[in-house]
Amino acid sequence: MNLNNLLGKILGTSKLEFDEIHVEGEVIDEIINIAKESHPNEFIALLEGKVKDRILKITGLIFLPTDVSNESAVMQVFMEPLSTNSIGSVHSHPGPSASPSDADLHFFSKKGLFHMIIAEPYTRDSIRTYDSWGNIIDYKII
Ligand SMILES: [Zn+2]
For labelling, which of 21, 31, 56, 72 has a CA lying 20 to 30 Å from the CA of 48? Predict the structure, then answer.
């Protein structure tokens, strides 16, 4: 059983099996711009996406009415119900590390399949992407 099959079993989301993750370039650019504008504050959004032909495609961001002024932003989103098309999350780290905090890992394990963290200097190279367990997973920009 591969990882995604296992994920599907655990989450009851067997329709959401995928082999690859594609993120639209426009979404990446939007994330970079918002991270820069929000600096030195953290920003967080949910990722909108769909699985089709075993490819998870991220097509947009969903913003929530959260207080984005501190590290607890992630936990506030944790309290929100996920909409049907939200498949994961993205947030910024005002600092050099894109490693998930303990709170991030807790959040990742509860919600969504794919999570992005963008650290300074807020470029494509400073984005790291994780699965529900906080393992780094690859993605393609399309
Ligand atoms: Zn974080």
Answer: 72
